[in-house]
Amino acid sequence: MNKFFLNLGKQPLANNYLKFYKKNQNKYNLKLFFNTKNKMVSISKRIPSEKMFTNNYPYRSSMSKTMRNSFYELSKEIKKRFKPKNILEIGSNDGTFITNFNKKNIIGIEPCNNLAKITSKKGYLTYSKYWNYELAKKLKEKHGDINLIYSANTLTHISNLNHVFKSISFLLSQKGILIIEDPSLLECIKKVSYDQFYNEHIYLFSAISVSNLIKKFNLEIFDIKNLETHGGSIRYYIKKVENKDIKISNKLKKQIQNEKKFGLHKLVTYEKFAKKVKLSKKNLLDILKKIKSKNKSIIGYGATAKAVTVLNYCNINKNLIKSFVDTTPEKINKYMPGKDIKIIKYKKNSLLKIDYAFLGAWNFKKEIMEKEKKFIKKGGRFITHIPSSRII
Ligand code: JHZ
Predict the structure, then answer these.
(1) What residues does ligand 1 touch, defined as CB less than 6 Å away?
(2) CA of 230 to the centre of ligand 1 (A)
(3) Rounded CA gap, 265 and 256, in Å?
(4) What is the pTM of this model?
(5) Structure confidence at residue 44 (pLDDT)
(6) Which atom of ligand 1 is nearest to the CA of 304?
(7) Is-contact 325 301, C-beta < 8 A?
(8) pLDDT over 70, % of the chain
(9) Strand 323-326 to strand 219-227: parallel, antiparallel, or no bridges (unpaired)?
(10) pLDDT of res. 45
């Protein structure tokens, strides 16, 4: 049932930024599989959540204007469209979404205590716990049914999806709404963004696979929205099957048609994708080596989890990309996981003495290019591997 289609090699924990470079870091096989029955794409090796989502988790959603805006816009939509009495966010990170709501009506769940603390300090009730059935039971006892549950870029990080949706369905009120958003498999395949796969991303969702998955838990998608965030994501609006007050939007049908047109339900599509990924690697290495042969400097821009996949899969070291710049305090002065490449604090003039910048955060290309007009004006160039490796 699970068919192998791509090997991205040995990869370190994507968000494990180390203070000192260690040659022998723990690395895990990153192999991708397509399930011919339920059409789910997943990675093989499952790392325990406790190893990945620690009390020093460095990723903060508040670091980009794009994400702050996206959560703000959604909060306005939720208030207007669904008017929920209470809301729960699974994976509330540093509170970028929940702080758009009244403190009395929203609860956050965030296992990484360093992040949960940030929201708690602002007066928002945040449980520093992993999402599971036991927690759902406790929440129900304490707060009753929940009207709206939201989760962005979290559920694909949890290995046991049956457990995840069983717990959600249990806690959600009869007329309740579940909204989830995660990177879109269709966009990943179209953009050859193989770096959406790393050990935290156990699954990559499509409308087809989510529909198949949630059926068992008395849930169905009634609307979807394609988003530009994280390189192309889908927001799924989900309800209980017996709630007939809400009509199923045509957009869902169209999305599934599109996904089928693109072949997301067939193994051969993933085999073709794998070939493109190999070409992307070859071309990226050719570009970097050619630039270096002319004695020009290259840094990385945005020390993303995605960039960790690229560096480790393509075997890119300090001799090709000398450092990365990033704004996240938790990443600064540490090393890219698995690599001898240091992360430097981003400053306004960080790029002025640099010739080329590899877009680790290619998903924020618009925001970054806008910010770095001075660099481009003085002849600086960005390098990207999305949708194909090139200089822009
Ligand atoms: P960004 C993380 O992936 C991990 P990553 C996680 N598993 C997940 O699912 C997604 O997020 C949602 C920096 N930056 O969002 C900030 C600048 O320095 O693409 C971040 O470190 N300057 C939870 O890591 C990084 O880039 C800037 O101007 O792939 C962006 O990380 C901007 C815009 C960003 O997620």
Answers:
(1) 59, 63-64, 153, 200, 230, 302-306, 326-328, 331, 346, 361, 363-364, 367-368, 371
(2) 8
(3) 10
(4) 0.96
(5) 87
(6) 24
(7) yes
(8) 100
(9) unpaired
(10) 84
